[in-house]
Batch of 4 targets.
Target 1
Amino acid sequence: MNTALAAKNTLLELNQRLVEQYKAKHPIADIVKQRSAFIDNLLQNAWKKCHLDLYPMSLIAVGGYGRGELLPYSDVDLLFLIEQDEVCQNTQAKLSELITYLWDAGLEIGHSVRTVSQTIEQGKADITIATNLIEARFLCGNTPLFEELYQRIRQDDFWPSADFYNAKKEEQTLRHSKASAFDLEPNIKTCPGGLRDIQTIAWVAMRHFDAANLTELVEHDFLEPSELEELLECQNYLWEIRFALHISANRNENRLLFDLQRQVASLLGYEDATQLAVEQMMKRYYRTVRRIMELNQMLLQLFKRATLGHFKALEIQPINEQYQRRGYYIEVLDNDLFSKHPEEILRLFLYAVKNSNIQYIYAPTLRLLRKARRSLTTPLQDNPDCRKVFMDILKHPRGIVALSMMHKHGILSSYLPAWRRIEGQMQFDLFHAYTVDEHTHRLLLNIERFAQAEQKDEFPLGAVLINQLPKKGLLVLGAIFHDIAKGRGGDHSKLGATDAIDFCKLHGLNDHDGRLVAWLVENHLVMSVTAQRRDISDPDVVAEFADKVHDAIHLSYLYCLTVADICATNEKTWNNWKGSLLRDLYFSTQRVLARGKEKPIDEQARVEEVQAKAQKELLRRGIKDKDMQSLWCRFKPEYFLRHQPNQVAWHTEAIIKHDQNEPLVLMSKHTTRGGTELFVYSQDRPKLFATVMTVLDNKNINVHDANIMTSIDNYALDTFVILEQDGEPIVQLSRIQSIKKALEKALASENPKLPKFRKLARIMKPFNVPTQVSFLPSIRQHTSMMELIALDSPGLLAKVGDILYRCEITLLAAKITTIGERAEDFFILQTHDGRALTDAQQQHLSSSLHLALNQTC
């Protein structure tokens, strides 16, 4: 057939016409059906041109094509239904001719050739094949063959309704376990709340009721008209996104990848405003999938009741005159209860957590709850009776479990208007893996985890403090409000603190408790910033933090909120390194608060204490006192102030035993603050820091901390805390040896041939992080503190080191923090002659960094 090129051009014209209709806001359902109808016509014409209508064979559409739903690059799934087990050579040739034609026309074809018996046999063995067959649609060919298949599929022995329900529910559970509905790059087809969840409802309905589509469920009194309207509205929005994805990617793409999200948002008509266009699009997306998840849960539960009769056998236990427990479900007994008494909407959740056996809401009750939620004309918090029940929930030991259920079913936003504004609110970056509401929800669950015995190993300090807080409910309120003002513009911490004060007054909390909640909200980032981006070994840094904290109670509340917040940001953010930093800051601050206004520790006494403890250990190891004293007299007091005795002993022994003409590279077998300690001892030279950073970058190592110092006789004594990309310490011996050898080779050469920087990862390319250089007031005398914000591109620290060398600036210490695609790094600097940087030097360094990083990032 020589018309494949013409067909391909016609398909391209169709795509362009559909895109124009899409941009003109034609109904997406019509667009999806148009393409399917066009392919129907193309296939039917090709079937005749190949003379396949002369053979005992049927052409059947299956899968999404069987539903009559095709997007620009969707696969076209076909079943060739044959009469006999084998086809003759001539028939095979004709089929090959047709398939080749379709491929040449630009269609992605999935096909199988089977008899009716083979099809039924494979369908019985594979739930996916069975599902495709339920949606089978006749296109052309032998009609009796299709009718035979149609009847066989609907016989009781081909996936009985109950078996089919169980298989599809298990399939969905497995699919949901592999992804989150709130992924940064969600698959709109398979993620929880995606198109598959709507299709699962339809498939189960088709099997049980022999329904052709969702609309027929209304006729069966299974789906209410408003629920059908909601499902179709959600489906259409996901179709709109999927259509735009296909056009943007120029392929069959179902993942909302970062590098496509801006283009997809533009195609959907979103424009940047207070919120970015992509954030507006994703907000509606996340709200849509949450609605689908709730409908899916309710309808599948109703199907379970209809197909299995499971709920009739569940144990029923009265709670009171209005409620009862049905197995793991809570059920309301009065259909008008929620509409008559709005406070009962909240009391439902209070009773649910008072009975630990209850995990879910019974589907008929959930339907009533949905109706009541949608009929509300004012926020529930405006009702005094509702406020009383909410405070009872807050004070209950399992109150967070109730809040979690309320969030899942949209009641938290019905209660608190500000919560509604953050529902689905995403941030277009790589750090915040969840929407603002989902992040806060996970934060609350983390607070709940602190009190669980099995979490003591992961959160040892949190497990102790959570039970010592005077009022756990105040921490919960601080958590609810900590990010509630995001997306409004302005400082979300200050705006959220104002919201918290207003909430506490409305709910009758005393002034002290209200101020504590507002303080937690306004200062919820202070502890993490101090621990990760400041030098907490400096007593002045700790003293400044202690002034902000005021007392031990505030410190304990803030520690619990900080840890729970970090852990809820994304799955990779929390690690032992951060845990160790926060614990160290907590205990250092606790000592300062306990000591009150006492004089700070004498630095000379601290140096002598460290040396004495290290000396004791070294003598035990057989190191002569004269050797260590000879070495230590070359070290500045700062070295002993910034290292623990065990570190000093480790360094000292290795240096004494090492050839002084060669660089020394040590990597600890034991983790330091949750990371691996790297120590470099070498005659100092230009660009030493940049050289080390280049090697570590090439080895795909994350640097989190750096102490850069030199001895009196100009030897580098540089200590780094390094981690693998997944946040774990470097423990594999071969990995340690590889890093050490690479560093030793680079440091041994006067002009080392350094590896090229890695390429920027795909996921980073859509992001533009403007380089920002800020100089902060320095606590340490004769030093300058610089904060650098930039794209976390490969080789960033090496480039910074090179610029510092060119600007004749000495690096004393660095704290390296990566927040998604952003590097937020903190440096302590000094001129070569030991002074703080002048204004002119700061300006020159800032300009040099901007120029170098903007060119290379």
Target 2
Amino acid sequence: MYSLPTASPDKRVTGRDLPRADAAVKVTGKAVYNTDIVRPGMLHAKVLRSPHAHARIVSIDASAAQALDGVTAVLTRNETDGLACYGTMVKDQPVVATDAVRYVGDIVAAVAAVDERTALAALDLIQVEYEILPAIFDVDEALDPSSPTIHPLEPRGGLPPYRNGASASLRSDHNVSYEFRYSTGSSEVWEECDHIFEDTFLFSRMNHMHLEPFVTVAEATDEQIEVWTATQSPFNLRQELGHVFNLPENRIRVHVALLGGAFGAKNGPKADPVAIRLSQLSGGRPVRFCMSTEEGFLTVSQHAAKLIVKAGVKADGTFIARQSTVLLDSGAYAEHSPAVAEKAGYRMPGAYRWQHIDTVCKAVTTNTVPAGAMRGFGATQTTWAGERQIDLIAQRLGIDPYALRLKNLKKLGEEFVPGDAGIDSDLAEGMRLVADAIGYHSRDRSGNRGMGVCVGLKDSGGGNKPAMARVKVTANGDVFLNCALTEMGQGGHSAMSQIVADVLRTSRDRVAYTGIDTDHTPFDQGTNASSGVVVMGQAVRNAAENLRSQVLAWAGEQFTLDPATAVLDNWTVRTPTGEVYPLFERIMEFFGHTGFEFSADGYYKVRNDADAPLAARCVFYEIGWAAAEVEVDPETGKVTVLQLAVSGDAGKVINKIGCRGQDEGAAVLGLAQALFEEMRYENGELLNAEALLYRVALAEDLPERFVSITQEQGHGAGPFGAKGMGEGGMLPIAPAIAQAIADAVGAQLTELPMTPERVFRALSTGGVPGLPPLSHA
């Protein structure tokens, strides 16, 4: 017998500090991740990787491996006929290397066997003959017309629409896969500048270091593909696999369980093509390809970058013009580099008002690990250079860097650039909050201590991202939420469930998040660009509201009441005059006790806009503010972060602890990149490509005082005024620490990470030639 809930919620569940919906299964070990998937008769895959940075494949002999007992298939270039290359905008990455290998770690061959031990033994039997080719490891060398061409044949590719000052091209220069340009305002304003400064900044390369590896289980034939895989974008993956294997999308099925972290790395094919092809070659038996942590280092990384920034200013510090050249090291294949380059180029204005902007960003091909999407997505590189130059300008002009920022920050509602949406946060208020949190304005700069305050900004939500969702409710009021937002530790499933619970005025515990299956789950472009709460959140909210309207309309007919004034509350209908109508009994009576489900879909996408440079206006701006206090040891160059305050604007909080976790997690990534985290290359070989050698942030690296402030300024485009979070907190950390170092000892750093060696070197030179001494007045 169904029992009606005794009490209705007395307030919204959004904005509350509720436990994560997946907390219990995760802490008890019951949660199922993609790495846990097992299929009957499952085989295991291992891959042979190139030991050379650049070489022509002369021959491959895999006959001995194929003959090994327990091996079901060997994949080399000989088994890739009809398979296309993949990549975002530029499709240049093959399933396995065909004509040449292009970086140390490039996949040359793959084996499927009854167990991993047999697969590894088979790899040792594969004979590959190489002809070594000249390799390029630096973006400047790659752009030199006399250097080798890494991709002699032009790959397939395409460009999205651009408008109002934005443009792009493919293969615009030697070893450039994609180039983005943005310009606005008149170049004549350079003549009005009292000072013109040009500086060069270097940004280091990081690994994503997600705990769950790249993993795929595939069951495939020439006519049908089904995968269980760790991906942030199941529908994009389905589309890309259709392109690679020349199959219609209705022959491809993608399942996604919980992800053990991603940070952008799990966009696009990773382990999938190899697992699928080996399954096809093994008669359709399931094949599991699970990379090791070390192999993750050889699959995708963040972009290293060189940024040349020229700024024109008035004597009083008014910003006039900014010209930028951004060179992203995209590695051996384009991967997500075109999309990152687009955003890096577009985000160069930062949070400030410029009369003229002229930016070019190039994705430069080198013989290193491919670079792709990572938390911050181009804004980390541009915020480092842009904020650092503002500090250098402040020193040159003798203006306090905090005051210089306030003077030039965009106002609430002011267009980011002509044709785009207005800024949806009070930037000055965020600066004040983090500065006050560490006592910036009353700081004691003795004892080699100093402070810095910075702000980072990125357009977020993905203007061209459509999202769909479906909400169902059973006869007794149990709710199913079906959407393709992937849960990778950010708490997205909890947030979506809270939105549904609020709309339907029920407990979040009654909302179940169904599994992601592209055959049955409504379409979503992907869980990226911090879009979950805003873009998918609005689709979910719309679906829940459509469902509520449907239920109330049915109830109106059944109980002869006005659905426009009635309220759905804990699976009862309440009228303004106080009548309460339970739904369960009436539903069962009406449908002959067979039960029933109400179901409704929701959709959201920001409108296309002919005036917007990227063809659609920004959904929301993700902004991070940071303030840091450091102490520098002048004898060693060691930097100790004493205080770190980070803040983001949630617009309207959906889950309080979730918002805090996003900002603090992003800040710790920024702290690591600022001081020590870096993928280190020597002659094309990655020296620290394993977990024991790669330095990530530890609990002991956290400052003694670490503060996060979640703002709710209320101007977001998401449900109830919410904005996305998760990336903004990373953007300002490194430049804030750099300015604090300069404030403490006068050393201006222009390269990441700011290791003791680099700080010590900058102590004797000032870091940037020609800078006047930093005043401690």
Target 3
Amino acid sequence: MQNKGKYYITTAIAYTSGKPHIGNSYEIVLADAIARYKRRDGFDVHFQTGSDEHGQKIETRAIEAGCSSPKEFVDQVSDTIKGLWNLMDTSYDRFIRTTDDDHVKQVQKIFKKFYDQGDIYKGSYKGMYCTECEAFYTESQLKDGKCPECGGPVHPAEEEAYFFKMSKYADRLIEYINTHPEFIQPASRKNEMMNNFLLPGLQDLCVSRTSFKWGIPVDFDKKHVVYVWLDALTNYITGIGYDADGNSSEEYKKWWPADLHLIGKDIIRFHTIYWPIFLMALGEPLPKQVFGHPWLLQGGEKMSKSKGNVIYADDLVSLFGVDPVRYFVLHEMPFDNDGVITWELLVERFNSDLANTLGNLVNRTIAMSNKYLGGVVADKNVTEAVDADLKAVVTGCYAKVEAKMDELRVADALTEIFALFKRCNKYIDETEPWVLGKDESKKDRLSTVLYNLVEAISIGAALLDPFMPETAQKIKEQLNTPDRDFDTLGTFGVCKNDTKVTENPEMLFARKDLKDVLEKAAEITKKQKEEFERTQAEAAKNLAKAGLAPATPVKAQESDEKAEAIDIPAKEEITFDQFGAMQFQVGEIIKCEAVEKSKKLLCSQVKIGSQVKQIVSGIRKYYSPEEMVGKKVMVLVNLKPAKLAGVMSEGMLLCAEDAEGNLALMTPEKDMPSGAEIC
């Protein structure tokens, strides 16, 4: 295998406020698939992940959990995170913790270096503070008086703090982003950072705190601790041996700059504005690329314990297995739009793609080889025209997968691999080995057909390995074929003649019954709800014991609570025919973006049956574009198209409005198919 050089990939380090859900686990699986692929493709890879362990929220969580110290709490949560990452079969090279001694020492040095060279100054910060997000906001940044990120409560706060002079490096960063179009991906994230933050002008950034103690101390001003983002972001260099005094390790010189920072889209501002500026101040090169991946939504909503819609990786693994969960999260996440996870979709993908397309293919090939050829396959060179097309598809697959992976389109790469397996299934239907097996004169043709299948599947298994490593290994073992380097995948016929497949094939994937899975999922949800309520009650007790008032939990309105009644002026009566002229249908929002020229409008692509309509709605104050994707909504379909803020709208989303003018989308009470008539 050709050595293609080094490749350094990182994930965001997981915050230790609690157990990561499947949306968080998606990131580590995505990074692992990329890292494994790069290794197989000839790169020398270093893959780093870890846990972010400081901050006021952690200090509070430790008290709520009844721990003797924040360190005891983060030790427990970090072990949980690491356990999940190991469960998901991820091949990281270092799991860094921000409480690691080498990291703490370097953060203190970096802070002092910034201060000495005039990038940091002491001042005071006053604003509205969100403890959950550990961030200050101005009044104008709040949404309905609440945190614009989590929607939780904020409170006035003022404290002495050190600030980093962001504006000093802003023009340099703008120039860098403009001359390096590959730096921020997808491109939509770049536009957001430029238009919303950089071009309007950067404010100086608070980089220390005095209102709590759980953080890395500023060694020359002990009442300050380093603010969580300066602490956390520097892990990407401290974890590979960076030294602020100029004595960085050979490992650092080898791996930096990072080839890819893989992060969630919600923290892209920190990684594409603050982090590059910190690096500029240190005189270090910038990472080659930052990719802000979309979210994995549960039934179209962001996962939240308070909503009771959280799904965890270990629960999914208990029902489906590790590789099927890896396959699902990788396959169902679009490049730049949020993905959706539901129990129904999990079962559908498991049965159709894994049990049928792949599992059945491998099982049939082995079974027919044993039945007709005693398990021994060989290329007897008895070919027909159909063979050439199979070979072309199979040997061309690597190039297609490579092109997708170069663009980080991992879901599309998996689709190409499964197109190979589907072509193999079609080849079985075309050649009918069961018919050839009845004719002794066709035995050499039958052997050639089954050899072609074994060879094709072994190439597919090699490509599948980064995404589903356990499954790929099982396939190779059952076919008794060697591991394939990627640079051999364009050659058909590498498997040795007289290869003997296993006599006792193991079923790779047994089909799942939806009813059974839903019953088990309901039990999991019930246990999670009980555990959430128990821990909330314990947290309140522990906070009270510590002399602290518990935060008021944000909870959904109970079904038996009645909203205040509202009377509105009556409109002129209409006839039944007038009502019948209006066409109402259920739509599914598949994409949503803010309208650039408006502060109120969102532009949604709404799937209605087999059609997609573009609908502009004045609901930006109440819903983010990310929240909209995946929602089932009620649509007035036959409204005459009109332009709003220069954007064409082809219908209307129905909303309810309360006495204060707050809007809520009207959604079907039960899950209805896209296009269903509302009557």
Target 4
Amino acid sequence: MIFKSSTKKTLIALAVASSVMLSGCQSTASTPTEQPQSTVASVVVTAADTGTTAITLEQAMAHPDWLGRQAERAFWAADSKTVVYAQKQQGNELRDLYTQAVNSQAASQVALNKLHTLGAANAVYSADRTVQAYVFEGNVFVKNINTGAITQITHDSAKQSKPQFLTDGNLAYRQGNAFYKVNLATGLQTEIANLHLSDAPEGIAEPATYIAKEQHKLIDYIALTHKNKKDKQARKEQLNAENSSIANAQFYLGKGNELADVQLSPNGKALVAVVKESRSWREDSDIMPNYIADDAGVKAEKVRRRVADEKPITSEVIYIDLVEQKQTTLAFDTLPGFDEDVLAAVKKENFARDGKTYESQKQPRAINLMMDWGWDQSAIVWNKTGTQVAMMLEAWDNKDRWLATVDVESSKLVSQHRLHDDAWVNYAYNDFGWLNNSDTLYFLSEETGYSHIYKKPLNGKVSQLTKGQFVVSNLTLTNDDSAIYYKANVEHPGLYEIYRVDPSNGNSEQVTNLDGMTDYKLSPDQTKLLLTHSKIMAPPELYVADAKANSSAIQLTHTVSEAFLAKQLIAPKIVAVPSSHTDQPIYAKVYYPADYVEGESGKNRKAVIFNHGAGYLQNSHMGWSGYFREFMFHSLLASEGYVVMDMDYRASKGYGRDWRTAIYRQMGTPEIQDLADGVSWMAENANVDTGSVGTYGGSYGGFMTFMALFTQPDLFQSGAALRPVTDWAHYNGPYTSNILNHPDVDPIAYEKSSPIYYAEGLKNRLLINAPMVDNNVFFQDSVRLVQRLIELEKENFETAIFPVEPHGFVQPSSWLDEYRRIYKLFKETL
């Protein structure tokens, strides 16, 4: 059992005798790994049932305004005493902004004509922290933090972005592909660099052909005109070189390229730009018919290309010296493994299936900037003084990630850290940066199997700052380098608190103790944390706490409605289901029936397993779920006697690298094995009849429903697949190619993982709910599978279409129709 504080006793209790081992509790001023291993309960009692008024399907699927309108996009004001957040208006999709002092329970709505005074979540600060700069509606503003005085720097229709204070006190910003700096004392604006996605002008060309050369010899007018042009060009170049009042910072990055990212050094002396070939994100045939258009016609909506149509693309890293007016392209050949054939084994297997022999050979791999799906930072980061720059790069084949710096003298990239994964490098947990007071990098890496913090001096060795079987994310470094704040699930995979580690010695200490899901933002003066916290039965609210160990938090917002609090909802229990395929258990939420008695006998319960979507998601945690409608639906089912299970099957977030990569080249195999373990657990522990179990889910959960019904046809008596993937070759590249490589390289993985290849296995009832304007999982996915089922002469399936819905349903009427069908399916089949 976990012992942490008196408040914890109301949250986590030992519910059954069997247990699993996880990393132990975190105590003050110690590293997580210094703590002894502690037993975590197999069942975690997360909350009590709530309310007295029965929930109905109509209410559960109603517009979520009725739950209360939670604070959104919260951030600190410059004074570190006030928070700013948005709140949705009742009955429409507009948001208002509010400010609230941290010592007050009252919020004030901000008038539209004052919105520019609020600052921004990504505001930047001067070196002495007395001035804040930010962008509002495309214009740059500067605020004096002590006086509150605001100066508008730009006032035009051009869109400015990326304000940053330079080491000389000037303020720089980006406009299009040009960078400017402003002297805040004089107001003088200077163009630092203007980047052109074209080839450099060739100047006045000399005659090249025989007849052109003869023309210049024979015709004096031609020769004179040519001389005059050369003289004019030479004079212009001389004027630019000798007259400092003229902006002369034009750089040409190549015709046919697009700018992936560019970052200006804090000293204003250099830029790093990354370009790649400009390609369309789609082909002309990538369209989606929209049958319910405002003009009553059929609109051909543009959609992204499929992974099967993707082609390798690589980038160029260009270092631009703004003082010397020189640009240099940095090659990737200094990166370890830049030319390895990392897919040799996969290619060999696929060749062999076709009776061919694969001969491996080295060749440069396509390499680009790291694309982390959760980042709010750039993949290019300068140190505080602007003397060093680091960038995170990834291979197009998804097997390698490099953290590299630039050796300016030799014009080459220097690999500081290589993370290789035989499956794929995670598209999360890639935070990195420089310590403020030394040329030392800090970064996240999954190399031990869990995301942890590391540091590396520029010319030194890597050292690990956090250790243990938990996941670290969301790094924030303090100005004095005394701490890196982070979010982690140290005590339990589903419980997230805020911690901080001292980079100098690796000592960690726990900051929050709120028991649930907690996110944070450090205040500008770095004395407080703005927390967004939720529990399983409670939507997120804002809290504030001191930025110190064992801090108590004060709740700022109280937005949950009385109507929601009054609803009778069954609180799920967090269960560790033993796995028959791995040493690690499968964590799951279990909604027990309202009349369930532990150890009951003589009843045969019916059950439903819900499959959450993917991307990279965890749902069996102790915070409020994004699946709040499903949460209420599951409570309704439980109130009617069903046992409902919601599993964090293998590939779910929060459980480490091995859990994540279990589905590599075999999507739909480990997950269905986990569902089978879930059914067995319910039979043994919740009196469930294995002949009365259904399953459902959306997106990846819909895919899993197909795979379960097609590959283990006796496991579930019915299933509902919502907005489902049926053929992974038709899904997008950035997600799918990580897990299954690319279809031209690894068709075996796509055929093994796509439900359409297993459709002949359908035996029991299937409901397919398909939105028609889904630009994520295309409606075509469902259409192709339906045709396959028709050709297989299957009778026990039905399809419901939703003409106006995207991937994430919006209209309450669509939600209600969808869940009425699911509810009816289970009533009829279980």
